Here is the input.
Amino acid sequence: MPTYLIGIDVGTTGSKAVLLSADGDVKASVTNEYPMYTPHAAWAEQDPSDWWRATIASIRGVMEQAAAKPADIAGIGLTGQMHGLVALDAGGQVLRRCIMWNDQRTAAQCAAITRQVGFENLLRLTGNPVLPGFTAPKIVWVRENEPEVYARIASVLLPKDYIRYCLTGGFFSDVSDASGTSLFDVGQRNWSDDMLKALNIPRQWLPEVTESPVVSARVNGEAARLCGLLEGTPVVGGGGDNAAANVGVGVIREGIVSVSLGTSGVVFAASDTYRIEPNGKLHAFCHAVPGMWHLMGVMLSAAGSFRWYRDALGDAERAAAAASGRDVYDILTEGAGGVPAGCEGLLFLPYLTGERTPHPDPDARGVFFGLSLRHGKAHLTRAVLEGVSFGLRDSLELMKDLQLPINQVIALGGGARSPLWRQILADIFATGLVTVNVTEGAPFGAALLAGVGASVYPDVATACRTVVRVSGETSPGAAAAVYADYYPRYRSLYPTLAPEFKALASVVNKHASAG
Here is the structure.
């Protein structure tokens, strides 16, 4: 009888399930989408019942695609979008739509919590500043703005943990996902009594927390009937999306770092010890590997900057791509490959939607700096790739400042498919890059965690050694010395321009309100 594992990702756009064999071969992958609601500017909500319907369909889809029998499934792992607020009443019914990770309504609550608790205390207690995306300020917002909802709350869950509740009836979370709530003592790997007391949030509202590979609950009869599973199938703690994704590519020991070039950019490093960036510029969370932590820097517009460039200035390349059947990004990077490193003095700041790491500034904006008559379109293209890479190096430098060793960098995401961009990253980082064979992301890692909980693998390290393989390598070249000269100039631009970013935002807001 075959042994299969299922990983489920409650993502921002849909519920994705992957089904893999014990040797890591992906037998099936199915995604079912659901809507996001924006009832006001800067708000983002989803209906948890949409997640559950999509999850049922995705589980059934992979079971059918792989011709898997219920008894073939050894375990289920959960992952998903972090920080969301799912509020349930005493009967387990959802009280309102989930306030999502990208919702920005809680700026006032974040400021109030920071004043009340103190910035240094927040770092000491939770490892992170309190941010609008996190869960605690959302709870406070509901208390202040929807008292009739707040009065009925009996339980608070994160998105993936709501799916666990639907599958098993159990109220559990894991240490990596709980780390992003501003209610969790990341160093002690448990809920922070000090934060709960300071914010007057009842401890009984919060789920029991386990390590990520631990079996937290088992599929109940109703969920088994709906999903086509076997009653009693184990469900492990799982992990937040970034932690699970990095388990899936083998970032599970100190010295290994991943750089993800998706719409946003993420630099993720495993750490043997609990480290806090003293100014809160890096996220410090529990890893999905027991006894480990991770540091994470986030750039808001990484490959998103390249997509903006394609849409704004790539009409000719889009037309050429349509005519030839080639990828538009390949055409753009082909031209950029003929430009020397440093773009003859042209720098790009990738702050198109503000920035998070290392400059948590919503008013920061994108900039081309150093334009001259020598610069053509290919220079602009390469400058975008270099600017994003310089910005990602900012996170890497913060990690080095904390004495975190950097021995290997794994390049992930759509942008990492570009050989030119991988070479630019290797040169700017002055560190070799590798790519790996895994492409399914967070649900793949969640499935590996399920395999540990179900004793398919003895531990997370063995699971990764079994299934993750290096598929390519990129070494730094001669351009590394050129970028070493340009990087300080890049770093000097934000401090110089920050006052003007704020002044410009004031002017824009003044005329927007007047209009």
The longest helix spans residues 479-514.
